[in-house]
Write a structure and sequence with these properties.
The chain has 11 helices and no strands. The protein is mainly alpha-helical. α3 (64-96) packs antiparallel against α8 (178-206) and α6 crosses α8 (178-206). The longest helix has 41 residues, at 3-43. The chain folds into 2 domains: 3-43; 49-279, MetI-like (MetI-like fold).
Length: 280
Amino acid sequence: MTAVQKRILINRIALVFSTLSAIIALGFLFWILGILVMKGMSALNWNIFIYEGAPPGYEDSGLKHALTGQLILVGLATSVGVPLGILAGTYLSEYGKNSKLAHAIRDISDIMMSAPSIVIGAFVYAIIVMPMGHFSAWAGAIALAIIMIPIILRTTDDMLQLVPGTLREAAFALGAPKYKVILSVVYRGAKAGILTGVLLGIARVAGETAPLLFTSFNDNFFTTDLNAAMPSLTVTMFNYATSPYEDWQQLGWAAAFILSMFILGLNVLGRLILLAGKGK
């Protein structure tokens, strides 16, 4: 066997193993989604959106409280995390650039992105929940925002750096101040990537359970009081799915289906926006 034939053989073997690995990974993914869709769809009904939590055995039981609480928590986290993440990413790309402070922020951001979410929850519990003396939606939103900020920060930084420097120079040559260049030129060129990062950040925190156990805890009744324990879809799903009651388990499957479809939809939307941006 010649050297060329040997390289071709090795290439084909690597291609076969890579293809098989991809097929196996996709098989597990569709297996999980298939079970989730079958069990979740069978448990889905209008009562879930109309009624709040009830004791086991009651027909008028739903997830209205958890869905509302999840929207409140994710909405609060988004209102905090998105502006801070975009502004911090803008500083790294447009002002900090290659300074020591910028490199330190990027390193810390990378560490925060890989930090276990339960550690974030314990941190917020120590600095907010314990001094306040009770769980609250504010604490849960802050924990989710802390998880969201590094994702948006790094995405914004990377996307802004992809904008050609010649566009900035052309705007400066026309006499535009730096803030105007950033708002009208740089952001416009990177808006698809930034929006994708925002959607991915929201999708990441929307599925978090561990930090909420330490911060907003949970409630089986409808509430909009931000200074009290707040129900969430993720914690409610965990409690219902692990309960010994069949009707609660069905609600747990329905919650898992709703949450998974929401996260999957955000990820698909982010990819489509990114592809549309590249097409332009």
